[in-house]
């Protein structure tokens, strides 16, 4: 069967990433290759202060990266707290394809990357270093979200400590012409986090889940809250039970609220999802979460519905 390929990704910068993914999907290529190629765009973009190169560092001034990838055969790979490597998603893919493991962390992940030809690079840009030094003056860790869209500046522009730029991750999910699904998720994590902190993004089931029988989901926002409910897996299971993607995302967001209503008001979490029919949707706790969609017929940014 020939399916209409489709790719979805988080935030405004998902648009450029989708365009790159399309260079694979549009030619009938594999969803796995598409999502890897797609998320490499923000990973290498120094103006994007929340993914890869140019990402905001942890509170010790170190840029530590989290990424995972999953294919149509339930294969998955992940790296956590990886430093000095421009494309953690490609290392995650190699963990999936070349090792008997799913996750490599920290120095082990770095050694594996270096042994496979990746180069050590400095990922802390002068802008991000400046933002960190600014943050050091108060050293207040406040993961408060982009309540307003206008506060959200995905393409650089002075991330405010604890402010709106504090968390953007690219999560990308795609279906190819064969009807196969894959997903990728990559981030420098919450700005000014404790050294060693890992969020939802590289955790299979939390930040990303792909089930070729059902569809795929990925998340962005305060990772701790997503991990608590194993968010992306929850969204996929809700779709398995028959909910459309948007409704499944909404239910996952409501689950976060039910766990701690007062806290949920102060932070952002967003999910996007795609099912076997090519239907898609997204939902967030707060206003201001957008996601990008591309098919052969359309290319757009969708402001996600939200609870608050
Ligand atoms: C994390 N979920 O490390 C990531 C951050 C994020 O938009 O999504 N930022 O918790």
Automatic annotation (TrEMBL):
Substrate binds at residues 197-200, 220-223. This is Glycosylasparaginase. GO terms for molecular function: hydrolase activity, acting on carbon-nitrogen (but not peptide) bonds, in linear amides. GO terms for cellular component: cytoplasm. The record marks 168-169 as: Cleavage. Pfam families: Asparaginase_2. Transmembrane segments: none annotated.
């Amino acid at each position: 069967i020939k399916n209409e390929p489709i790719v979805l990704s988080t935030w405004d910068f998902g648009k450029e990433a989708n365009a790159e993914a399309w260079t694979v999907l549009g030619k009938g290529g594999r969803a796995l290759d598409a999502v890897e190629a797609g998320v490499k765009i923000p990973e290498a973009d120094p103006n994007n202060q929340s993914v890869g190169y140019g990402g905001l560092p942890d509170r010790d001034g170190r840029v530590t990266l989290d990424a995972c990838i999953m294919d149509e055969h339930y294969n998955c790979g992940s790296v956590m707290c990886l430093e000095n490597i421009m494309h953690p998603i490609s290392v995650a893919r190699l963990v999936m394809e070349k090792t008997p493991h799913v996750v490599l962390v920290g120095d082990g992940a770095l050694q594996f990357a270096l042994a496979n030809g990746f180069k050590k690079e400095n990922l802390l840009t002068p802008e991000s270093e400046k933002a960190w030094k600014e943050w050091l003056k108060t050293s207040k860790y406040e993961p408060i979200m982009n309540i307003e869209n206008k506060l959200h500046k995905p393409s650089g522009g002075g991330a405010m400590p604890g402010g709106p730029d504090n968390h953007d991750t690219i999560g990308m999910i795609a279906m190819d012409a064969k009807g196969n699904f894959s997903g990728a998720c990559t981030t420098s994590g919450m700005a000014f986090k404790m050294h060693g902190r890992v969020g939802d993004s590289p955790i299979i089931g939390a930040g990303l889940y792909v089930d070729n029988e059902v569809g795929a989901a990925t998340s962005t926002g305060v990772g701790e809250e997503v991990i608590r409910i194993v968010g992306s897996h929850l969204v996929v299971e809700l779709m398995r039970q028959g909910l459309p993607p948007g409704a499944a995302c909404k239910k996952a967001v409501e689950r976060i609220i039910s766990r701690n209503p007062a806290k949920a008001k102060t932070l952002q979490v967003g999910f996007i999802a795609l099912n076997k029919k090519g239907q898609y949707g997204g939902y967030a706790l707060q206003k201001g979460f957008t996601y990008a969609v591309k098919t052969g017929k359309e290319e757009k940014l969708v402001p996600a519905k939200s609870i608050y």
